[in-house]
Design goal:
alpha/beta; globular; thiosulfate-cyanide sulfurtransferase activity; Oxidized Rhodanese, domain 1; Thiosulphate_STrfase_CS; GlpE_sulfurtransferase
Amino acid sequence: MFDFLKPKPAAYQNLSPEQFAVALRQPEALLLDVRRPEEFASGHLPGALNVEVTAPDFAQRVAALDHSRPVYVYCRSGARSASAARQLSGAGFPAVAHLVGGVLDWPGPLVR
């Protein structure tokens, strides 16, 4: 009866750093760093594209991406990437996941 009151399940996956690392081994994986450009420049995951989630053109930039590829997003701590993951799912990306804990919890090397 009041199904509209029930929270909707997330349309994206929350992945631990270990799960995220395994998922990124897929050759078709698309990795997005949704932090500000200066944060990206200070160190990012290898192969990441910088698409700032708070930028006014975020929706237009992600619309140009290949919707058939699985998308993995991260930020500094996980808050912005969760927001980006919701937006990506809403934009029609069928496979979206974000890094819980963000780059702060990433165990691997960063590109500087």
